Q: What sequence folds into this?
């Protein structure tokens, strides 16, 4: 089967660092994505990892370990506007994009 | 350039009716995929079209169908609506079909929120 697990909710403080984990079991692997979705809005692309290691983009970094079926999204210097749902998604061998349920992040002052 | 446009944004239907949703991709994008988003199931893949051909299909019943036109605009149709079809239906476009991209970026529309009573 295909399974992507991420925590349902997380809370963090403004200015802090938060790590959102994602583990996956899919039929094949062609890449892992992180999307951000604010309430009532469209998901927006954050990052794409296809090789092991860390990809850094400003305040956001994403890490992938294919052997462990594991990824995380790291958000630094949290801002109130980072309060959103963070979606982990994997492209499987068949070319289908499988999404996790999303992690609802609340940033508090 | 204009983003992905979905119409209608909101609609209410009753059980047994059918509905058609429309998606206009970003100009130049030839791949369109559809997703259903519900609180309980998250985002689930419905189908993907590229150059008017369905390339991939998710695990949804045959009541869910779609098509793509020569201008890359896409429609999805749900027949014999059920209460469980209430959801946000998201369309995403990309330049190339899945598996042939090197960035993985999909551009999502804001969705069509369907309520079935």
A:
């Amino acid at each position: 089967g295909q399974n992507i697990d991420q925590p349902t909710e997380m809370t963090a403080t403004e200015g802090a660092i938060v790590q959102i984990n994602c583990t996956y079991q899919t039929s094949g692997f062609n890449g892992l994505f992180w999307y951000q979705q604010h309430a009532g809005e469209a998901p927006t692309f954050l990052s794409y990892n296809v090789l092991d290691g860390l990809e850094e983009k400003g305040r956001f970094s994403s890490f992938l370990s294919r052997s462990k079926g594991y990824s995380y999204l790291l958000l630094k210097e949290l801002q109130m506007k980072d309060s959103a749902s963070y979606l982990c998604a994997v492209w499987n061998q068949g070319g289908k994009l499988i999404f996790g349920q999303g992690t609802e992040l609340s940033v508090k002052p | 350039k204009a983003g992905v446009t979905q119409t209608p944004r909101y609609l209410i239907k009753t059980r047994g009716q059918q509905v058609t949703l429309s998606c206009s991709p970003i100009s130049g994008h030839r791949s369109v995929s559809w997703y259903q988003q519900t609180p309980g199931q998250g985002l689930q893949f419905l189908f993907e079209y590229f150059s008017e051909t369905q390339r991939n299909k998710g695990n949804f019943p045959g009541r869910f169908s779609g098509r793509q036109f020569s201008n890359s605009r896409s429609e999805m149709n749900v027949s014999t609506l059920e209460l469980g079809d209430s959801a946000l239906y998201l369309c995403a476009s990309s330049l190339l079909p899945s598996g042939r991209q090197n960035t993985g970026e999909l551009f999502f529309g804001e969705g069509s929120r369907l309520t079935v009573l």
Q: What stands out?
A: The first strand of chain A starts at residue 3 and ends at 5.
